[in-house]
Amino acid sequence: MTHQLKDGGQVLNVGMLARVEGEGGMHIEIKDRQVVDVKLNIFEPPRFYEGFLRGRKYTEPPDITARICGICPVAYQSASTEAMETICGITTTPEIQLMRRLLYCGEWIESHALHIFMLHAPDFLGYESVLEMAKDHPDVVNMALRLKKAGNDLMELVGGRAIHPVNVKVGGFYRMPTVSELEALRPALEQGVEDSFAAVQLVAGFDFPEMEQDYTYVSLRHPDWYPLERGTEVVASDGVRFPVAEIPQRIEEFHVQHSHALHARFDGGTYFVGPLARYSNNFDQLSPRCQEAALKAGLGETCRNPFKSIIVRTVELAYAFEEAVRIIDQWRDGHAPSVPTAPRAGEGVGASEAPRGTIWHRYRIDADGVIQDAQIVPPTSQNQASIEADLRLAAQQWVDLDDHMLTHRCEEAIRNYDPCISCATHFLDLRVKRTTSAEQP
Amino acid sequence: MTATTPRRPDVILIGLGQPDRGDDAVGPAIVARVRARHGDHLTVVTREDPTALVQVWDGHRAAVVADAVVSGAPPGAVSVTRAGAADPPLPTHAFTASGRGGSHAFGVAGAVELARVLGTLPQVVVIVGVEAASFAHGPMSPQVEDAIDDAVATVEAELTAALRLAPTTDTHAEVEPCA
């Protein structure tokens, strides 16, 4: 909707941004064909999870923080368990780590499949929503539903529930799935491998706007595999690398007036977490088949075009299916579901790679295991500044488009992030205001 | 699935909602009550994610969905919405575009209409809704708790009608545990 302002400018108002999780607001102001202001307004009241956690036992964050998000609860559980285990000096078994990785594969599969096909693909195929897309591409949508169901089933088996899993605890799991239970999922997962590799080729054929950003890519890294449930260090595309424990010293949260969610800067500057960063910082850790598929899809070993995040996400989808099958292949019954735990006073950090990027938790607990302080930093919060940077670049690059097309292009730029705004917000109200010098009061 | 998949002419009861999220728990609570009384004759499932509907009711001739709804009615009000293949389309835009309809902006109306396009929508779909007061973490509100008896009776009446429509020789017992 376009409104004429008294000063002669224009406001384009998209009352709600479709196909994102949650609600927020976006204001873009253009003067003399120059973008002069971009704000991502997050106006949902704070949810106080960090406050709720104070005074609770060190064993409770995996269950409490999993309720923050219905799409990425495993990310919260993994970061919180790692933080608590680090503080308390708890060493889990390789099998527990393997099962955590399998659970994380389930989350990536369901989240990526939903976003790639149901929320993001309509942008590239020219549909308002997946409903319209399904009329012309029923096979793609059926495949998407199949893939998502495979992820949900994996989450349900390993996590105890498809949404807000309940089987995770500090020290491991309450119950390990059996070989026979896991084998029952194998056909759908093996089909998922093939479907998702075919999907890489499908999305590679989309038409991508030319746009590149140069902000610092930050992600976890692990010496042995592509980062999901944990990493041994944080790496940045500018060559900086440091242990997970040092994240709070390198990433600074700060408040901006137009958002209820804290912004963040890395070493003082704008940075990006998410599939593009993960991929670009860890291309060598992808499987050979994923690497080959990515290169065949036209990606380099790094990707700087936010619109091509759909290809990267699909490569990661294929990787998650591959990993799930690999883990099931080597799983044997009889492993202890958890190791003993006991509290120890201290402070520590845990981090994992949520579908949308690095999430990290910091806790301080006393000798009785009571939480004294908690800090939870999800990826969409960290990416607010880079979302604004993308919006600024996109609005400037396509400033001559009519208001409808410019607004749509800006919405696409936001959806590139698969933002999980509900971790901090609701509704996205997109406004573009155009003025000229002559029209200023 | 595609339209060529053999269809099982039976009836499925689906409780939709998240048990931790206040009144969103009412769907699973209703079907738990019905399962205890009629589980031998029905497929009874619970799901938390609306997108699961598109597949879970595929192949069934009739589906009854129990869910919490927000329509502006007083909390606890029980409503019935018919959304089967022969019924008019639901207004999906508000559900699919607002982000309020379910995880990642995909709600029940979106699931119904997507199933209609993909050919998985049962001939009979009845959504038995209970007007919610709150979806905050915690227990159900008293008004919604008090409405469960009425909702169960409504679900049973709809199931009775649906079972008469579906060939009884093909009904089977298949009770899944709550998610």
UniProtKB/TrEMBL annotation, chain A:
It comes from the Bacteria. PROSITE patterns: NI_HGENASE_L_2. The keyword DNA-binding does not apply. Keywords: Iron, Magnesium, Metal-binding, Nickel, Oxidoreductase. Ni(2+) binds at residues 69, 72, 420. Fe cation binds at residues 72, 423. Its cofactor is Ni(2+); Fe cation. The keyword Transmembrane helix does not apply. GO terms for molecular function: ferredoxin hydrogenase activity; nickel cation binding. It holds the Pfam family NiFeSe_Hases. Mg(2+) binds at residues 50, 376, 426. InterPro entries: Ni-dep_hyd_lsu (IPR001501), Ni-dep_hyd_lsu_Ni_BS (IPR018194), NiFe-Hase_large (IPR029014). This is Ni/Fe hydrogenase subunit alpha.
Automatic annotation (TrEMBL), chain B:
One of its GO terms (biological process) is protein processing. Keywords: Aspartyl protease, Hydrolase, Protease. Gene3D superfamilies: HybD-like. InterPro entries: Pept_HybD-like_dom_sf, Peptidase_A31. One of its GO terms (molecular function) is aspartic-type endopeptidase activity. CDD domains: H2MP (cd00518). SUPFAM superfamilies: HybD-like (SSF53163). Belongs to the peptidase A31 family. This is Hydrogenase maturation protease. It comes from Demequina capsici.
